[in-house]
Amino acid sequence: MTPHKGACLSFQPRIRKGAFFDASWRYGCRAFSVYNRTYISSTFSTPLEEYWKVTEDVAIWPVMGERQVEISGPDAADFVQFLTPRDMSRCMVGQCKYALITSAEGGILCDPIVLRLADDRFWLSTSDCDLELWAKGVAVHSPMRVAIRDAGVSVIQVQGPKSPRLMANLFGDRILDLKYYWLASMEFHGHALTVSRTGWSGEFGYEIYLGNHDQGDALFDALMQAGSECNVAPGAVSQARRIESGIMSWGVDMTPSENPYEVGLDRLVDLDGTPEFIGRAALLRLEGQPLEKRLVGMSIEGAALDPNEDPWPLTRNGETSGRLTSLAYSPRLETNIALGLVAAEHAALGTELVAGTWEGSRKARVCELPFLPKRQQGDARAS
Predict the structure, then answer these.
(1) Residues 288-296: what's their mean pLDDT?
(2) What is the CA radius of gyration of the chain?
(3) Which residue spans of the chain are classified as CATH 3.30.1360.120?
(4) What is the DSSP letter of 346?
């Protein structure tokens, strides 16, 4: 088992290029992946350089594969509630909510951020899954009056402790009043765009949703210029930082085979007073039952390991315990850190396991999550 270094990706018409693709290429990105049938930047320099950029300065991440499923119409609010076990009745216009989309069996189909743009218009900012098709399938025999489509916007994230200063340089000081998990409309070159105070880094940050594809180059350049005094650089999502923060990746750390209780997201399940939603009966049945598996953090001993490409086996006393799902080397902790799903009886802090890795068997120890604190909240004006 060895890493597949030097792999190439061919560009093809069937894969979408987001609004920031050409700018990403122009700024040196040569490594791409595919996310929601859209090219997404994998790295501009090195994962280590980009880790320090997002933890100490500010990074620009063109996450074009982060698609927005738009649900609109007279019954949009009721339809969104039907998709998720989270109580959305308290989601105000201009607010964002992290939510789960569950199957009839209670499995996690997706974990979008829901943005409420108007009383009758929502965006579901989706992970790498077929959420648009799922929602359209649900709507086929539903009496609810909704329209469902890809919103056609490209997302770029501005992440890191200096992100408020960059955003204020570009949009003015008003952006500093935007609260965590809220959104606002901003103007860029005569066109409105949406900004939310969200992100996938565990650091202070923002996401910008660009609807006018032709402005991709101009917005990228403007962000770089606005961040020139902040030591800005383009980059890609830092896997090390998101694992440090205990942020899960759908399709990797959780799948339709896991329910919210097994991955520690029971706070996103509201069974009391919430209207009917897909998976309600299953989650009601699962609530309070003994867990078969649990998501945990782990430290992996030894020299730095390359990230895993597939789940790695975890054992205890020679018996299968589960699978390691995500791994990275943490520069600040100076050790390999990982997320994984293990048998519930092996999830206690300090439990010793064995992970199969690129370098053979390595000792693993269950650790508390997050490994390092998240720094997403707080007053932007104090940053």
Answers:
(1) 96
(2) 21
(3) 21-67+153-242
(4) G
Distance CA 305, CA 327 (A): 8
pLDDT in tens, 33-45: 999 999 999 999 9
State which fold the 21-67+153-242 domain adopts: Gyrase A; domain 2 (3.30.1360)
The reported pLDDT for the residue numbered 382 is 84
Q: Write b or e for each residue in 194-213: b if 16 or more Cβ atoms lie within 10 A of its Cβ, otherwise e.
A: bbbbbbbbbbbbbbbbbebe
Q: How far, in whole angstroms, is CA 130 from its chain's centroid?
A: 15
pLDDT, residue 345, reads: 98
CA dihedral 211, 213, 218, 221 (to 10 degrees): 90
Residue 6 reports pLDDT greater than 90: no
Region at 138 (left for phi over 0; alpha for psi -120 to 50; beta for the rest): alpha
Query: What is the spatial distance between Cα 376 and Cα 158, in angstroms, rounded to a whole number?
Result: 12
What does the alpha-carbon distance between residue 368 and residue 244 come to, in Å, rounded to a whole number? 10
Indicate the burial class of 375 (C-beta count within 10 angstroms; 0-12, 13-18, 19 or more).
middle
As a whole number of angstroms, the distance between CA 201 and CA 235 comes to 12
Question: Tokens 């209780």 identify what position?
Answer: 261
Q: Are strands 319-330 and 312-316 parallel, antiparallel or unpaired?
A: antiparallel
Return the bridge partners of 56, or none: none
Cα separation of 337 and 349, whole Å? 14
The enclosing H or E element of 69 equals strand 68-72
CATH superfamily of 290-374: Aminomethyltransferase beta-barrel domains (2.40.30.110)
* The pLDDT value given to residue 1: 74
Distance CA 134, CA 79 (A): 12
List the one residue out of 66, 78, 71 whose CA is nearest residue 110. 66
Q: How many residues does the chain have?
A: 383
Closest CA to 65 of 126, 8, 133: 126
